[in-house]
Protein 1
Amino acid sequence: MGLLGFLLLITIVFSFTSVQTWAAKKAVDWFNNKYDSRVSLAYFKYSFPNNFTLEELYLPGEKRDTIIYAQHLNFGFSGFYSASNTLSASDISIEKLRFNWITEEGDTTSEFQKFIKKFDSGKPRDPNAPPFQMEIGDIDITDGMFRFENVNCDSCSRYWVKELNLEIDNFDLDGSYVSGDIESFSAKERYSLDVYHLEGEVGYLADRLYAENLELKTSRSYIKGDIALKYDSTAAFKDFINQVSIEAELDEDTRIESEEIMFFASAFPDFDRFAVAGEINGIINDLKTKDLVIELGESTRLRGDIALKDPTNVDSIFLDARDLFINTTPADIRYINGLFSDSTLPAMIDQLGNVNFSGDFTGYLKDFKTRAVLTTDVGTVNADIAFHQPDTTLRNLTYKGDVEVEEVNLGLLLQDSSLGRVSARLALDGMGLDPRFMNTQLKGQIPLFEYNDYAYSNMSVNGRIQKGYFKGRFEAKDPNLRLVFNGNASFGKDTSTYNFTAKIDTADLYALNFTPDTVSRVSTELDIDFVALNYDKWQGSINVTNTMFEKARNFYFFEDIKIESKGLDTTRSLTVRSNILEADVSGNYTLASIAGAFNYHLRKFVKSKRPMPEVPAGNFNFDITINNTQLLTEIFMPELIIEPNSRISGEYHSHTAGLNIDVKSPGFEYQKNTVAAIDLQYNGANSRSELGFRVAGVKLASGFEIDSIFLGNFYYRDTLFYNLSWIF
């Protein structure tokens, strides 16, 4: 009876809060003495049967810095089971929790780790003993703070979480591992991102960190789905992109800010804010996706099954994409290219408009194979081709495969109004895109090519373009142009080489928009072999045979025309042989210097405000005999008739600016006005010129006749004298 009374007395005494607090402080003192710590407690309360309340719980470190502080702590203690080494509690609520896991300057371990080590008895742990476990029903943390940092390491991860609020159910601690159902979590992180809301079933286990039914909202991102990070050990996080495997299934509402990923993986490309959905598996440097959808830039959308290797290394990104679909714009293409490459894209990219890509892609960004359809505002391209770009320029870009072009608007793409749409089916094998430098074998059909407002059709090509030089065969079977070209032709900037034969069975110049005459057809054969320097000096031959020209009322046939030029240095010659005319030019000249010499002397007789041009360089002789121009004049100027055997000869010497011309002609007729027996002599030099002009007779269409006319001009310095006489 006495013992029972004593126990009853003890129970009554300990029911008072002041006594509970006194006893708790005594227990704290014992704890501090035993473990050399400085734990303090301001208030303690026990409520029957198993509820405990603590206030102002404080644990400082050895340097008086706070390790743990809780303004208010309430928990229901369910018991400790020694067999399983498990502590069980019903609910825990904590207000104003402060937890600092900091390794101070000069230390190798944190203050918290030092405190935990005090509980180590030094005896070897029984390997068969179960790890410490904790099972808690609900945890509620309000206005918490957690700081994790090693001040001795600039590259180590650090976190400073404030305004932490957490509601978690079914909390389970098993040794070093933890899991639970987060009902609500929010916090502000000083160094990375703020979490506005997080919920889901989460866990940190020996081989994975996972979040199922996750919903995460930060200041700039929203993630919904299932995510798991798998690893062999936690040391894998030191090489996150190569040793931590991601398994994720993301909802279509997911939006991610690149900068928030870059807090944890700095090499991640800065896509700004982008959307992502689908299944993702693998480490970052070897990712596989299924039903992946990505939206980034202003309007780029990507969909497909993609395997991605080494995406954090610009020079070695490898993609294997199946059933890939991409919709983008020129602005986004330039933006995304700038994230991975320093190369400059050509200006024609801006003309593409809306771009759609569908197909497969395998390889690196500069070394890949693709079978795809590319649709743009300027046309469609079907390709089964491989590309390799060894450097940042497009000059050394190599490619091999088949390309089908469907109504691509070259005029819009190249900003050339003379060009229009083109369609082609070509097999390509070569290098470069600029015709001046490329080396490419091409073979195929060209069913459509618009030039000068005419749509050419039914063409084919088989040849090679090499550094501005085409060698091969080109054939056109268009209704208005039947042409076969076989040979070589260059289109270099300074030097051109031509060695080919061409047969034009028919060319309707009116239908092709080269002449306004409704009936204007030509056929001819060409055999050309020459080299031209700057298009002013050339050497070689041009042979034109079997030429026929059809007008509305007549057919014209030209016999052979042969043109030959010799010499590319200071001594050159040019000969023309045909039934129309014969011409010989020899000396040191260019086509420009010949025109310049005649223009220089013509300016003496034509008043102009412009100053006299410089004396053209060169020395040459010329002799031209007009045999029969009827064919040419009937075609191009039918009202003009030049009598056969008209001759023009002379010479030019630049050191005196001397030009001598001798013109003799039986005469000509123009619009029924006739001039007979023309004799013209011109001798000109720097400061003086003499012109003598005599005709035997003039008969005008009106019937007026002149027996003869003589005109004499003498030019000295800036004065012109003339003498004109005629006989009626």
Note: The longest helix spans residues 17-35.
Protein 2
Amino acid sequence: MTNEKSIDLHGLVKDIFTNQPISNAKVELFVSDRVLTSFIAYTNEQGYFIIESPLSDVTPTITVTASDYETITVEISRSDRLGNVELGLHPLFIDPYHLGHIYDVECYLTNKQGELVDLRTASGITFLEIGPRIPIYSRLYTDIPSLIHKIPVLIKGYVVIKVQSERGSFTTPPISFQKIETFMLYAPEGTLLDFQLHAANCEASIQCEPDEYGISRFQELTVSIDLHEHISVTAKEE
């Protein structure tokens, strides 16, 4: 319906990778001249929406929100208002098989910001004692029983997964991980432990299963993290 002040804007909201329509997405059009005015519509099962668009010299903006997708805000030109608008949303999680045939899956240790971990400083990797140091006598190093300590340590950090496919590459945001390791060494109470990474290896694999239509769908991401630590024991300064 068209009048002197507004026109019905037609549009489609879809997944930017699969081109599949997104239903029940909230489409909100904002016009800011002197007073901020908004118009709201929701997409139907086919991803289409109709929303009232003022015929104004002010360029309106549209904000689209949908469950499991990143929110976008775009400007709508006068020519867009006279035709159909297509809006693509980026999913918060991407099924790797939407990217086509997968060539390689890589894994990297990173910090919270997604920057690669420098093994010299181990920045981004946290070591935390989580229990008492338990003294035991062991023949771990010699035939004569010697006193050592069992020390449980919580190790925390982040990894980034990079998928190479026929349609390009996709890199995940940093994914947190944590693991508990028990170290055996002589470290009586009153000493400090200094952890350093000597080497690190991260491997990832993707598993999929066919759905009811025979199409491969993502099922599981498996990440294996192997850390080689160097630990030194020092006395606390008085």
Note: Helices lie at 78-81.
